[in-house]
Amino acid sequence: MSTLTLRGIRNSLGPGLIMAAAAIGVSHLVQSTRAGAEFGFALVWAVVLANFFKYPFLEFGPRYALATGKNMIEGYAKMSRAAFWIFILFTVTTMFAVHAAVTMVTASLAGIDLPIPVWSTIILFLSVLYLVRNTYAMLDVAIKVLMTILALSTITAMILAFVNVGYQPMPDLIAPGVWTVSGVAFLIALMGWMPIPIDAAAWQSIWTIERIKQTGIKPRLNKVLFDFNLGYIGAGVIALSFLTLGAIVMYGSGQEFATSAAGFSNQLIELYTRSMGDWAYLIIVICAFTTMFSTTLTVTDTYTKVLTQFIRIQKNTPEEIGSKSSLHGYLFVGVSTGTLLLLLLLGDQFRFLIDLATTLSFLTAPVLAFMNHKLIHQPEVDESLRPNLGYTG
Asked: Could you tell me which of 302, 300, 307 has the C-alpha nearest to residue 99?
């Protein structure tokens, strides 16, 4: 029986943390904080259930990659052309809204007074410049450092919020209804990206293959799942931490959640400084911005890789051509340009853009979950590496 060893964990550690970096963005900094600010602790169950029910369908990503040596997009194409084209359709129709949402949040946290479109352009340019010149290994190192900083600062802020502020909503406070039209609409948006869209299973399969190529070692299943679980559970804990911060600092205070990107960034920084003290302002600004920048970096890289896979599979070109071709560079520019155009078109409609992106992900989730379930039970997946029926239905 295989056991976890420090060396084995180190060799497989990476894709799960990159997934966490992609997750700890809009769904956490924005939606979880907003859930606490508007509903107190009333939506803790929604965060927990979303994490619980999405777990198996996201875990199939690294499991499939380990079992077959292929990413899930290749798996969809082999399983059926319909599945392949459904995934393409869902990706193309949601990616610009998703990319624009994370870019706008990143721009709002830059800490320098420039218009959001200007900051968005700078951020996307820096992302493309970094990704074109660097490899998976550089992304892997950057993400590990940034995730450690964010996790420590967020959990510290939550603990200090309990100690310094405490949960003291006004006695005559009338809590907003969850089961109203607006409440259900927000609930859908919250759960759509909690902790991350189910599309990310395919992303995780790509990162797992790249990690295996980077280390030259094919890890055992328990090590791959340890990495996945570390990132997944960590993202869930951070989501509850942000909800707690929103509930303690904003719920019942009479302060409404901002509809603009600039207003949101000020409120987010205030959540930390009211919990930790004004001395932490600069540290929190740097931490929040770098965390969201890592999310933008990850999403920019991922959508480009996914589109490269689409084209490679359609043209039946070898795997090695993928990220080394000039097409890959053109796609970096194309995806970022499309995202910037959407941001310019919508302006500073912060909440609308985020609710649009998260709702689209919620609506596509059942179809992708079904496809992932079918894929992991295809003949090319060895039975010893298939999931336990206890959680796949």
From this structure: 300
Sequential DSSP letters for 149-185: HHHHHHHHHHHHHHHHT-----TT--PPPTTSHHHHH
Residue pair 312/321 in contact (Cβ under 8 Å)? The answer is: yes
The pLDDT confidence band at residue 1, using thresholds 50, 70 and 90, is: very low
**Is residue 32 a contact partner of residue 243, using CB atoms and an 8 Å limit?**
yes
Q: Give percent of the chain above pLDDT 90.
A: 22
End-to-end CA distance of the chain: 26
Q: How far is CA 336 from CA 20, 64, 109, 331, in A?
A: 22, 29, 19, 8
Considering the domain 6-391 in this protein, what is its CATH number?
1.10.4160.10
Question: pTM for the complete prediction?
Answer: 0.83
Q: Can you tell me the distance from the alpha carbon of 64 to that of 133, in angstroms, rounded to the nearest whole number?
A: 29
Q: What is the pLDDT of residue 181?
A: 85
Residue 253 neighbours by CB under 8 Å, 6+ apart = none
Domain ranges of the chain: 6-391
Q: Is the pLDDT assigned to residue 366 strictly greater than 70?
A: yes
Q: Report, as an integer, the average pLDDT of 193-219.
A: 88
Nearest to 246 by CA among 209, 271, 277: 271
> Could you tell me if 222 and 385 are in contact, meaning their C-beta atoms sit under 8 angstroms apart?
no
